C-alpha cells in the first residue's frame, strides 16, 4: 500500500500575537490526501486554513503533530511540494520562460531535458508567444498561470495552493478554474487547495474539508461526487452542484458571525 | 518606451486633451523638460538683472561675467582642473570604501534580525552626529593628509548608506523568498539569486543618493589642512572675500554632483531594463 501524498496527523499551531497572547490557529487537525486526489479546505477568513497549508509547505512550524509527504516527515520547504501563493510571486527580472526554468535549478535533468519540460508547460498553460515577456507585461491571470507551471515543472508529489485566484477578477477567476481543471486532467497529482470560495471548491475538488472558526479545527468532510472531466458551464447549472454549494454555504454560515443566523436554505424557501 | 511616449505626446498635443494644472495628470515631456530649462534661464536672468543694475553689491553677489572670468582664470592657471580632480579623487575613494563595507553589512542587517538588533541602535546613534564635529578627531586619528579627508567623507556617507541598503534588502517580498525555498534552494542560493537580484535596483539607487551626499560633505572634508580641492578653494576665497571664486566653487560642486548622479541614473536604466519589461 502506497503512503498518502500528504498525511497530517493531530496538528496544532499556535502563535504569539502582538500583545503576547497565545492564539491557536490550527487545533488537532488530521487529514489525508492520496496521490491523484484534489482536496480543498474552506472556512471563514482567519480560521487557520492558510496556516495549515503553509505548515504542509514547511513554512510554519507546528507545536504538535506530524506532517508527512510521501511518507517523509516535513521539517522544511522542499521540492517534493509545489506551492502557489495568492500574491504574485514571479521573479520580475526573469521572463516567463526563465521563471519556469528557475524552479528547475536543483533538478538533476540535463539542460535539453529541462528546456523541453519548460516548453511543454508553457504550452499546457496556453502562454505560447509570451515566453519572452516579463511579469509586468502579463495580466494577473497570466502571472498565476506561470506560477502554476513553475510549481508543476519540477514534478512535486503534491501541489499546495493558497487562494491562488483570490486576487483575480471574477471573469479571469473562472477561466483560471477551467485551466486548472484542464491541467490537472493532464497531470494528475495530489492537490491541496485553500479557498474561501465555496463554488470554486466544489468545481475543483474530489473532497472538501470545512474548517471551523478559530481555533481552526476540521468541522466536517464532504465527498464531491461530480463526474470528470468537468465543464464549468454544465456544472454550474446542475442540481447536484447546487446542492453541494447550498450545503457548504450553510456549514460556513454557521461558522461566520453573520448578523442574521438564518440558514440559507430557509431564506431561499 | 520612447515610442509609447512619443505616441502619447502626439495624441495629447493634437487633441489638446491634457490640461497643465490637472491634479497628478501627465503633461507632454516636451513641456516638462522645457519648464526645467526655462527656470534655469529665469534664475540666470534674475542674477544678471540684480548684479548689472547694481541692486546688489558685487561683494555679496558678483555678476555672471565676473564668475565666468574667474572660471577662465582658474582654468588657464590649471587650478580648476587640479582642484576638481583632487576633490573627485577624495569623493570617489571615501564613497567606494564606505560602499564596500556598507553593502555586506547592510545585507546582513536586512536578512538577519540578529545583526539588525546588534548594529542598528549603534548606527542610529552615530548617524545623527554631524560629520563636521568629527574633524578634530579625524585629524588626531588620520593626520592632515588625504586620508583625513577621506575619513570625513566616509563618516558622512557610511552610516546612512548601510541603513538604506538594509531597507533595500528588506523590500524583497517574503513570498518571493518562501516560493524560492519550495524549489529546494539553500539559504545562500536564495540570498544570491533572489534577494540580491530583487534588491539590486534599489541598492543602485542608494549608490546614487549616497554619492550625492558625499559631494555635500566635500567642504567639511577640505575644511582643514588642505592645499587643493573645490572645498578648499571656497574656504580660501572666503578669507580674501573673493565672492566670485566662492560662487564658482559652489557651481562646480553642484555640476560635478549632477554629472555623477546622471551617470548612475543612466546606468540604472541600462542595467535594469526588466523594470519596464524590456530584456
From TrEMBL, chain A:
Lineage of the species this protein comes from: Bacteria, Bacillati, Chloroflexota, Anaerolineae, Anaerolineales
SMART domains referenced in this protein's UniProt entry, alphabetically: AAA
Keyword entries, A-Z: ATP-binding, Nucleotide-binding, Transport
Keyword ATP-binding: yes
Protein name: ABC-type nitrate/sulfonate/bicarbonate transport system, ATPase component
GO molecular function: ATP binding; ATP hydrolysis activity
Alphabetical list of InterPro entries matching this protein: AAA+_ATPase (IPR003593), ABC_transporter-like_ATP-bd (IPR003439), ABC_transporter-like_CS (IPR017871), ABC_transporter_ATP-bind (IPR050166), P-loop_NTPase (IPR027417)
Pfam families hit by this protein: ABC_tran
Residue ranges annotated for the ABC transporter domain, each copy included: 6-238
Organism in which the protein naturally occurs: Flexilinea flocculi
PANTHER family: ALIPHATIC SULFONATES IMPORT ATP-BINDING PROTEIN SSUB (PTHR42788:SF13), TAURINE IMPORT ATP-BINDING PROTEIN-RELATED (PTHR42788)
Top-level division of the source organism's lineage: Bacteria
UniProtKB/TrEMBL annotation, chain B:
Assigned GO CC terms: plasma membrane
InterPro entries linked: MetI-like, MetI-like_sf
Protein localization: Cell membrane
Membrane topology qualifier: Multi-pass membrane protein
Parts of the chain that traverse the membrane: 31-50, 91-113, 125-144, 214-234, 246-264
Positions of the ABC transmembrane type-1 domain: 84-264
Keywords attached to this entry: Cell membrane, Membrane, Transmembrane, Transmembrane helix, Transport
GO biological process: alkanesulfonate transmembrane transport
Protein family (similarity comment): Belongs to the binding-protein-dependent transport system permease family.
Name of this chain's protein: ABC-type nitrate/sulfonate/bicarbonate transport system, permease component
Organism: Flexilinea flocculi
Amino acid at each position: 500500500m502506497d503512503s498518502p501524498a500528504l498525511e497530517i496527523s493531530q496538528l496544532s499551531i499556535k502563535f504569539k500575537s502582538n500583545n503576547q497572547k497565545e492564539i491557536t490557529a490550527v487545533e488537532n487537525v488530521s487529514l489525508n490526501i492520496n496521490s491523484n486526489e484534489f482536496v480543498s479546505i474552506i472556512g471563514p477568513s482567519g480560521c487557520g486554513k492558510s496556516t495549515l497549508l503553509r505548515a504542509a509547505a514547511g513554512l510554519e512550524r507546528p507545536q504538535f503533530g506530524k506532517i508527512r509527504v510521501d511518507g517523509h516527515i516535513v521539517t522544511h520547504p522542499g521540492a517534493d511540494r509545489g506551492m502557489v501563493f495568492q500574491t504574485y510571486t514571479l521573479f520580475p527580472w526573469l521572463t516567463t520562460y526563465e521563471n519556469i526554468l528557475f524552479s528547475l535549478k536543483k533538478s538533476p535533468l540535463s539542460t535539453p531535458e529541462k528546456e523541453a519540460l519548460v516548453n511543454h508547460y508553457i504550452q499546457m498553460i496556453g502562454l505560447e508567444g509570451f515566453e519572452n515577456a516579463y511579469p509586468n507585461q502579463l495580466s494577473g491571470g497570466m502571472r498565476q498561470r506561470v506560477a502554476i507551471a513553475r510549481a508543476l515543472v519540477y514534478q512535486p508529489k503534491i501541489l499546495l495552493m493558497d487562494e491562488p485566484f483570490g486576487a483575480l477578477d471574477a471573469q479571469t477567476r473562472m477561466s483560471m478554474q477551467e485551466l486548472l481543471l484542464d491541467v490537472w486532467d493532464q497531470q494528475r497529482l495530489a492537490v491541496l487547495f485553500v479557498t474561501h470560495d465555496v463554488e470554486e471548491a466544489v468545481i475543483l475538488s474530489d473532497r472538501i474539508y470545512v474548517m471551523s472558526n478559530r481555533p481552526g479545527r476540521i468541522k466536517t468532510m464532504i465527498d464531491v461526487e461530480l463526474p470528470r472531466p468537468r465543464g464549468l458551464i454544465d456544472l454550474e447549472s446542475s442540481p447536484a452542484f447546487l446542492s453541494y454549494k447550498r450545503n457548504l454555504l450553510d456549514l460556513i454560515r454557521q461558522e461566520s458571525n453573520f448578523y442574521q443566523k438564518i440558514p440559507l436554505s430557509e431564506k431561499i424557501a | 518606451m520612447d515610442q509609447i511616449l512619443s505616441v502619447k505626446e502626439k495624441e495629447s498635443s493634437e487633441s489638446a486633451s491634457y490640461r497643465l494644472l490637472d491634479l497628478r495628470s501627465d503633461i507632454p515631456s516636451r513641456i516638462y523638460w522645457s519648464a526645467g530649462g526655462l527656470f534655469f534661464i529665469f534664475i540666470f536672468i534674475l542674477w544678471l538683472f540684480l548684479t548689472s543694475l547694481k541692486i546688489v553689491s558685487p561683494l555679496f553677489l558678483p555678476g555672471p561675467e565676473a564668475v565666468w572670468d574667474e572660471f577662465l582664470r582658474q582654468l588657464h592657471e590649471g587650478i580648476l582642473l587640479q582642484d576638481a580632480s583632487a576633490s573627485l579623487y577624495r569623493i570617489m575613494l571615501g564613497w567606494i570604501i564606505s560602499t564596500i563595507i556598507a553593502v555586506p553589512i547592510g545585507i546582513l542587517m536586512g536578512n538577519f534580525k540578529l545583526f539588525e538588533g546588534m548594529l542598528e541602535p549603534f548606527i542610529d546613534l552615530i548617524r545623527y552626529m554631524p560629520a563636521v564635529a568629527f574633524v578634530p578627531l579625524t585629524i588626531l586619528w588620520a593626520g592632515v593628509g588625504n586620508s583625513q579627508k577621506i575619513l570625513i567623507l566616509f563618516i558622512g556617507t557610511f552610516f546612512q548608506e548601510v541603513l538604506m541598503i538594509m531597507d533595500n534588502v528588506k523590500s524583497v517580498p517574503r513570498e518571493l523568498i518562501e516560493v524560492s525555498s519550495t524549489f529546494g534552494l539553500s539559504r545562500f542560493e536564495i540570498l544570491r539569486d533572489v534577494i540580491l537580484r530583487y534588491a539590486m535596483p534599489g541598492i543602485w539607487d542608494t549608490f546614487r543618493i549616497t554619492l550625492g551626499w558625499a559631494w555635500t560633505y566635500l567642504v567639511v572634508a577640505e575644511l582643514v589642512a588642505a592645499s587643493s580641492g573645490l572645498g578648499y578653494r571656497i574656504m580660501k576665497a572666503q578669507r580674501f572675500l573673493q565672492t566670485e571664486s566662492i560662487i564658482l566653487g559652489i557651481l562646480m560642486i553642484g555640476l560635478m554632483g549632477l554629472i555623477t548622479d546622471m551617470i548612475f541614473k543612466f546606468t540604472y536604466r541600462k542595467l535594469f531594463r526588466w523594470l519596464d519589461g524590456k530584456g
